[in-house]
Design a protein that fits this description.
Strands 2-1-3-12-11-4-5-10-8-9 form a 10-stranded mixed sheet, sandwiched between helices. A two-stranded antiparallel sheet has the order 6-7. It is built from 12 helices and 12 strands. It has 2 domains: 199 residues, Isopropylmalate Dehydrogenase (3-Layer(aba) Sandwich); 138 residues, Isopropylmalate Dehydrogenase, CATH 3.40.718. Helix 6 crosses helix 7 and helix 10 packs antiparallel against helix 11. By secondary structure, the protein is of the alpha/beta class. The protein is globular. The longest helix has 16 residues. It binds 1,4-dihydronicotinamide adenine dinucleotide, 2-OXO-4-methylpentanoic acid and magnesium ion (MG). The site of 1,4-dihydronicotinamide adenine dinucleotide (NAI) has 22 residues, from helix 4.
């Protein structure tokens, strides 16, 4: 069996962490009787530089026929000025939309050995085990938007947080089913005291909960949720929310585990899965070779699990990461004072040594 995996390294630290991910993927499938063909394409700022657009046609064609897609990250200060349609992030949003990956799964699990890197109290940090299900192809990032000038010549801008019933239902289904396979608790996060899109979201959660009587459902306003995540994150099992809230809450949750560099994600929907660490292109450390590759490597485990259905290989990758961390492997973002600091490549080698 041969699989085609499209690699989109992107910008900043993206190429470093995806190079690590590919090495781990190749090692993980050795002896499995399968072959993986990796095909690299342009997305984001590097694509703007080479082709004048953040999501070139060649990349669009390649991802639509792939078995899975691995992405690093896009963006950076180089492209922060200039016309809106040329932003690297627009390429990423278009990619997610094209693949129809409406459910972004972001597991947030503490590694016992990294508790010192977490800002939480020890007994709380070690109990963090959450899956965030973030709606990924709707909401304010995709709604009608405009910038203009009013009659007096003053500037205005707006973005619309639009959700259809179908968009809400399908991601909630993923969330309910995820909760069912875990501790059977679903926290739906919204801003239903203010936003109509949130009121509809909450109504649909309530309607759908009848089909999942084994799942305990609670509703939480997003501002309170942001606080609860740092005061008592151990109460959360599966957390489901719309795109913008999920983007923010997952970066916050990442820190609970020690570093944003630790968190993987799987974006699932209409077939082809997209796998990426949750962090961005980290321009402040780009080119230094010190990025934490573990979020990207753990995304490979999710690819093996969800797209290739190789659960044993997925577990091996997760265990290899856990073993490396247990043995004291630390990139700069994880290291406490006096700890030996590994480069991206050295950390990758440590993970590979356990595979
Ligand atoms: N999926 C994507 O492609 C994403 C792209 N971005 C883009 O990335 C650029 C930078 O955004 P920021 O707000 O700075 O967010 P960021 O996630 O790139 O970085 C935030 C902070 O975390 C650190 N960090 C991130 N990943 C790390 C890793 N693997 N190892 C060690 N440290 C790590 C960075 O050094 C920085 O201090 C922007 O252009 C933004 O739009 C941001 C988030 C996601
Ligand atoms: C372009 C942004 C929506 C990327 C991001 O921050 C994310 O998906 O987490
Ligand atoms: Mg984000």
């Amino acid at each position: 069996m041969t699989y085609r995996v499209v690699l989109l390294p992107g910008d900043g630290i993206g190429p470093d962490v995806t190079a690590a991910a590919v090495k781990v993927l190749e090692r993980a499938i050795t002896g499995q009787g399968i072959e993986i063909k990796i095909e690299s394409h342009l997305l984001g700022g590097c694509a703007i530089d080479e082709t004048g657009t953040p999501f070139p046609e060649k990349t669009q064609e390649a991802v639509q026929t792939a078995d899975a897609v691995i992405l690093g990250a896009v963006g950076g200060p180089k492209w922060d000025v200039g016309p809106g349609h040329l932003r690297p992030e627009a390429g990423l949003l278009a990619l997610r939309r094209l693949l129809g990956v409406y459910a972004n799964i972001r597991p947030v699990k503490a590694f016992p050995e990294l508790i010192d890197a977490s800002p939480l109290r020890k007994e709380i940090a070690q109990a963090v085990d959450i899956v965030i299900v973030r709606e990924l192809t709707g909401g304010a990032y995709f709604g009608k938007r405009e910038r203009g000038r009013d009659e007096a010549g003053a500037r205005f801008a707006y973005d619309t947080m639009y959700y259809s019933e179908e968009e809400i239902r399908r991601v909630l289904q993923t969330a309910f089913e995820t909760a069912r396979l875990r501790r059977k608790k679903l926290t739906s996060v919204d801003k239903a005291n203010v936003l109509d899109s949130s009121r509809l979201w909450r109504e649909i959660v309530q309607e759908m909960s009848a089909q999942y009587p084994d799942v305990t459902v609670e509703h939480l306003l997003v501002d309170a949720c942001a606080m609860h995540l740092v005061t008592h994150p151990q109460v959360f099992d599966v957390l489901v929310t719309e795109n913008l809230f999920g983007d923010i809450l997952s970066d916050e949750s990442a820190v609970l585990t020690g570093s944003i560099g630790m968190l993987p994600s799987a974006s699932l929907g209409q077939g082809i899965g997209l796998y990426e660490p949750i962090h961005g292109s980290a321009p402040d450390i780009a080119g230094l070779g010190i990025a934490n590759p573990l979020g990207a490597i753990l995304s490979v485990a999710l690819l093996l699990r969800y797209s290739l259905h190789l659960e044993a290989a997925a577990l091996r990758v997760e265990q290899a990461v856990a073993s490396a961390v247990r043995d004291g492997a630390r990139t700069k973002d994880l290291a406490r004072q006096g700890e030996n600091v590994l480069t991206t490549e050295q950390m990758t080698e440590r993970v590979l040594s356990y595979l």
